[in-house]
Amino acid sequence: MAEVGEIIEGCRLPVLRRNQDNEDEWPLAEILSVKDISGRKLFYVHYIDFNKRLDEWVTHERLDLKKIQFPKKEAKTPTKNGLPGSRPGSPEREVKRKVEVVSPATPVPSETAPASVFPQNGSARRAVAAQPGRKRKSNCLGTDEDSQDSSDGIPSAPRMTGSLVSDRSHDDIVTRMKNIECIELGRHRLKPWYFSPYPQELTTLPVLYLCEFCLKYGRSLKCLQRHLTKCDLRHPPGNEIYRKGTISFFEIDGRKNKSYSQNLCLLAKCFLDHKTLYYDTDPFLFYVMTEHDCKGFHIVGYFSKEKESTEDYNVACILTLPPYQRRGYGKLLIEFSYELSKVEGKTGTPEKPLSDLGLLSYRSYWSQTILEILMGLKSESGERPQITINEISEITSIKKEDVISTLQYLNLINYYKGQYILTLSEDIVDGHERAMLKRLLRIDSKCLHFTPKDWSKRGKW
C-alpha cells in the first residue's frame, strides 16, 4: 500500500464522498494539487466523469491508498479527462466524428411543408411532409441528457471572435481548481463551483464580499460596509426595460458600463465552466433579472448577447445564481431572450456549448413552447389544422434547427404513408399540462419596453 507522502499530482485513486442519497461511495478521482497546512496534507480531487463543480479538498482519510494509480512519466498528452497543463484532443475531430453518426430514422421533415392533424387511437397526429433523401444535419441528432456538446447546432470548432466560448486549450492546473472559497452577496453566501480570475490576493480569503448592486468586490466586511456608504446604486446600471410584479430586467451596455459588466462576468465565471472570461465587454449587452423589495433590486440571474451575431445567437452566457435555481427563473430568462428576438424580428439560438444545467433548461423550454403551439392548433371546417416547421419557428423565434431537434428529442416524429407525422400521445399531453401548471412565472410581452438598435453602425457602440 502506498504512503500518504507518495501521493503526487496526477495520481488516481478511489475517494470517499457522499452521493445525492446521502450514501457513501468511492468514485475514481484524480489528484490535481497537494498542499500542507500546519503539517496536515490536503488533496484537491476531481472525480472522474463527474462535473467539476463537485471537485474539493479532502484529507488522506478519504483516500483509498490500496488502489492508487501513479501517473505515467511518458504521458505528455492527456486522456479524455486530461492531466494538468496538457492540451485536450481536437474539438474539431470530436465534432466530425459525431456528425457521421446518422440515425436510421427517415430524413428530417421539410421546413415549409404543412403539418396536418388527424386522430388515431385516441391521440392527435400531426403530419409533416418531408423532402425524401434529404440528409440529416448534425444539429438534428438525438442527444444524451447530460451531454455538454448537445446536438443543437454546435459549430465545428469553438468561436474566438470575442464570444465567451472556451476552447479549453487554456486549461492548466490553475484554471482547473476552484480558487474562491465563499462569496457573500447581499443576504446570500455562495459556494463557487469553478475557477474565476479574481485578483490573486483575494483567493486566500475565507470570504469574498461583493456589493450586490454594483458587484464590486472587497476583502473584508468592513471594506464592504465602507463601500456601501458611498455606493448610490440600488439597481443594476442601465435601462429598466421590463417590470411585472417584483421582477425587473435591466439592459446594460458592456461598453458604457464596463466596470459593472466585468464584475458580473467575474461572478458568473464562478458558476460557468464552459465559458472564457474576456475583459473586453464592449461587444456585449447584458440583461440582468432582479427581484425588487424595499431595499432595492436584487440580482437573480442574467444573460449576455453579442450586439452583432452572424450565427443568430441570442444568448452568449446565461446564469441563474444558485440561491434562485429550481424556482422557474432559468426558464424566465430564456423566455425573455426569445421575447427580445420576437421584437427584433429574428429567430435565435443560444451559443454552444451549454452547461449541463443550461442544456436541461433549454430543452425543457423548447419542448413546452413547441407543445403549446401544437396543442393550440384548431381545426377549421372539419379539415385537419396545418402548420410548418417554418411557422413554428416564426411564432416562437426558436431557430428551425432547435425546433427539429426538439421534436426528435421528444420522439414526436414518425413516418406514415409517405409523410412525417407528429404524434402527440396522451402521456405527452398529460405531462405537458402538468408541467405548465407548475410554471407560474411567465413573461408578459405587454410589460416589455424595448427598442432594438442597429449595431452594424459602429458609432452606436
Kindly describe this structure:
The chain is α+β, with helices and mostly antiparallel strands and 461 residues long. It has helices at 91-99, 221-230, 258-269, 329-344, 356-375, 389-396, 400-409, 426-438, and strands at residues 12-14, 17-18, 24-25, 28-37, 40-47, 56-59, 115-120, 123-128, 183-185, 188-190, 208-210, 217-218, 239-244, 247-253, 284-293, 296-306, 313-315, 317-320, 349-350, 413-416, 419-424. It is 21% helix and 23% strand. The strands form 6 sheets. It has a 5-stranded antiparallel β-sheet, sandwiched between helices. A 4-stranded antiparallel β-sheet has the order 1-4-5-6, with no helix packed on it. Residues 84-107 and 116-169 have low confidence and may be disordered.
Q: What is the gist of this entry?
A:
With 461 residues, this protein is of the alpha+beta class. It has helices spanning 91-99, 221-230, 258-269, 329-344, 356-375, 389-396, 400-409, 426-438, and strands spanning 12-14, 17-18, 24-25, 28-37, 40-47, 56-59, 115-120, 123-128, 183-185, 188-190, 208-210, 217-218, 239-244, 247-253, 284-293, 296-306, 313-315, 317-320, 349-350, 413-416, 419-424.
Query: Which sequence of SSEs, written as H and E, runs from N to C?
Result: EEEEEEHEEEEEEHEEHEEEEHEHHHEEH
Global morphology? globular
Low-confidence stretches: 84-107, 116-169
Label the structural class: alpha+beta
Helical stretch tally = 8
Helix content: 10-25%
User: From the structure provided, what is the oligomeric state, counting identical versus distinct chains?
Assistant: single chain
- What gyration radius follows from the Cα positions, in whole Å? 25 Å
Q: What is the β-strand count? A: 21
Report the span from N to C terminus. Answer: 63 Å
Report the sheet with the most strands, covering strand number, pairing sense and barrel closure.
5 strands, antiparallel
Strand order in space, largest sheet: 13-14-15-16-18
Strand content: 15-25%
Q: What average pLDDT do the residues reach?
A: 81
